[in-house]
Amino acid sequence: MKSYDIAVIGGDGTGPEVTREALKVAEVAGRKFGFSLNWHPYDFGGDRFLRTGEVLPDSAVDELRKYRSIYLGAVGHPQVKPGILEKGILLRLRFELEQYINLRPVKLYRAQDCPLKDKGPEHVDFMVIRENNEGLYAGAGGNLFKGTPHEVAIQESINTRRGVDRCLAYAFEVAKKRRGGQAWKGLKPEDVEAGKRSQLTLCGKTNVLTYAFDLWWRGFQEMAPAHPTVKNEYAHVDAICMWFVKNPEWFDVIVTDNMFGDIITDLAAMIQGGLGVAAGGNINPEGTSMFEPMGGSAPKYTGLNVINPLAAINAAGMMLDFLGETAAAEAIENAVVKIINTKIQSLAAGRMGFGTTQVGDLVAAAI
Ligand code: IPM
Ligand code: MN
Predict the structure, then answer these.
(1) CA distance 338 to 330
(2) Ligand 1 atom at shortest distance from the alpha carbon of 86
(3) What is the CATH number of the domain that holds 69?
(4) What CATH number has the domain bearing residue 194?
(5) What is the pLDDT of residues 38-68, one digit of tens each?
(6) 96 Cα–ligand 1 center, Å
(7) Which of 31, 217, 271, 306 could form a disulfide with 350 if both were Cys (CB 3.0 to 4.6 A apart)?
């Protein structure tokens, strides 16, 4: 039987609770589809930091590097200054393991979970590909005269040809595969006639950020001819925010830089039903990838068995898909859709009509 070794960082707050449900569901899928999962737990997070003063030992990064996949619950602890755990664990792993793609499927499973009037599952179904190693997150910059009236704070966006191109290339591949021969509803008849099957939108700000997005724009234009089945579009980030609310059905695959990607994926999470279902993958296609629910550690709900584990379960599904267990991943998604549509009252914490563990059990049973 095939087996997979997976590093598990449950993390802070409700992270361990939702992780438990996600692993439970993944195991059930494994039994059904003929593979086993060996979990290797790591206790990185706020509690360990408060106990030992250490966020992530250097040796841990090298140890984690040996795995094909890491499962991460949540980081963020109320007694730890914001930034320490986020930068010390999440961002450090994204950078050092070169997880240069942040993959965010945005899919609404039930109309009532969408805050937009007259929009249902047929309108909200797209994918955001966020660059995950560069941009404003690179940490380039500094201060002068800190704490004085003359203080200067500089934060620069780093965009490299290699970083931009590999992100665009990944996005074109995702777009190409996405609509297996089906005409995407965002395409006009003449696009379909011209052989287009999917659409990739570059999200930028070419009218103001004329250095960074000039590079992105040229990379995009240069790569497009090699992908004739993908219609390429461009939209400014502010307009994208507007259209996510007004016409989310226009989007198929979106590619963007780190900061814009961070912002638009929170908005996107809301139109798919909120942080209770939104999951993401930090992908290094050739190395170690890391999967996580989008929501934070939600400390006020810790231990109450009220937090929604569906985002964590979806993250486990993405992980299995990444490992090549596509049938198991599909079964998890179908089970989630079924449970939402037949059982769950609301996707919000405490209002599901079931506890965290029960929701995990329901999904597991549906598989
Ligand atoms: C995300 C999160 C992180 C980010 C934080 C926790 C550092 O918001 O994954 O989107 O900004 O990337
Ligand atoms: Mn974010």
Answers:
(1) 12
(2) 7
(3) 3.40.718.10
(4) 3.40.50
(5) 999 999 999 999 999 999 999 999 999 999 9
(6) 16
(7) 306
